[in-house]
Amino acid sequence: MAIRTEHELHKRRFSRNLGVGLALASFVLLVFALSVVKIQRVGPVEGFDHQPRTTLLPAEQSE
């Protein structure tokens, strides 16, 4: 079997696939980075369970 040269169509398809792959990878990294930053800045996450959140209530002043 002889080694065939790669067709021009395959080169264009590869560069297009590479571009789409890099765009997808950058989107995944962006979502991951935003998630990490949000988790670090917020601190412990309080779930929504239909109870008043005491951390959001104004502090009571002692007399």
The DSSP helix count reads 1
Main sheet makeup = none
The chain-level mean pLDDT equals 81
Task: Give the CA-CA distance, first to last residue.
Answer: 95 Å
Estimated structural class: mainly alpha
Q: List the secondary-structure elements in sequence, H or E.
A: H
- Helix fraction bin: 55-70%
How many beta strands in the DSSP annotation? 0
Low-confidence stretches are none
Rg (C-alpha, Å) = 26 Å
Strand content: under 5%
Mass-distribution shape? rod-shaped
List keywords for this structure.
63 residues, mainly alpha, 56% helix, 0% strand
Description:
The protein has 63 residues and is mostly helical. It has a domain at 13-40. The protein is 56% helix and 0% strand. It has one helix at 8-42. The mean pLDDT is 81.
Produce the secondary structure layout.
Elements: H1 8-42
Short summary of the structure?
This protein is mainly α. The protein is 56% helix and 0% strand.
